[in-house]
Amino acid sequence: MVMCDYFSAPGDEAALRVLDRPGGPDPSVFDVLPLKGFDPVVVMARLEAIVTGCDDAQASARPRSGMLMSTPPDPERGLVMSVSDTLQRALASASEERLAEASGPLAEIEELRGDRFSAEDALGVLRLLSGLARRAESGGMRLYCWWAL
Asked: For the segment 76-108, what is each residue's pLDDT rounded down to a tens digit?
């Protein structure tokens, strides 16, 4: 399964430092949320569409949405991709009610359905992502994903 560790960093340069160490972001340095299989391009764009009310194409086209930060890509060390600022703000400001409303549609995303991902599972993930986004916002940081096979 694909490893997807979401984390916050003060900027792109700091985020790329996760590639200096095998195994992804160090939890003693970064605020890290491991989410295996939570693809930073497709799943996160779908999530953005769900929580902001836009369509998938709009979410995918937003600046920093699943943008590859580590160039050239090095599959052995993993890749770093950005999370859109729009999704970060939406998650950071989402109420518990909004997260609950989004959990059903998130559980229905095709890329997650094969893992027996329920609406209850989705709500738990949304709460964790929302917490990560809130901490990032309060610290003036941005969200990223370290992706590796």
From this structure: 789 999 999 999 999 999 999 999 999 999 999
Cα 1–Cα 106–Cα 3 angle in degrees, nearest 5: 20
Q: How far is CA 138 from CA 8, 83, 96, in A?
A: 11, 16, 18
Angle at Cα 108 formed by Cα 115 and Cα 36, nearest 5°?
35
3-state secondary structure of 11: coil
- 8-state DSSP, 109: -
Q: Tell me the pLDDT tens digit for each residue of 104-120.
A: 999 999 888 766 889 99
Asked if 53 contacts 102 with a C-beta cutoff of 8 angstroms, the reply is: no
Rounded Cα–Cα distance for residues 55 and 28 (Å): 37
pLDDT top residue among 37 and 118: 118
- Give the Å distances, CA to CA, from 51 to 21, 91, 101: 33, 8, 9
Q: Positive or negative CA dihedral for 127, 138, 31, 13? A: positive
Q: How far is CA 28 from CA 14, 31, 44, 129, in A?
A: 14, 8, 25, 18
Q: At what angle do helices 42-52 and 96-107 cross, to 10 degrees?
A: 130
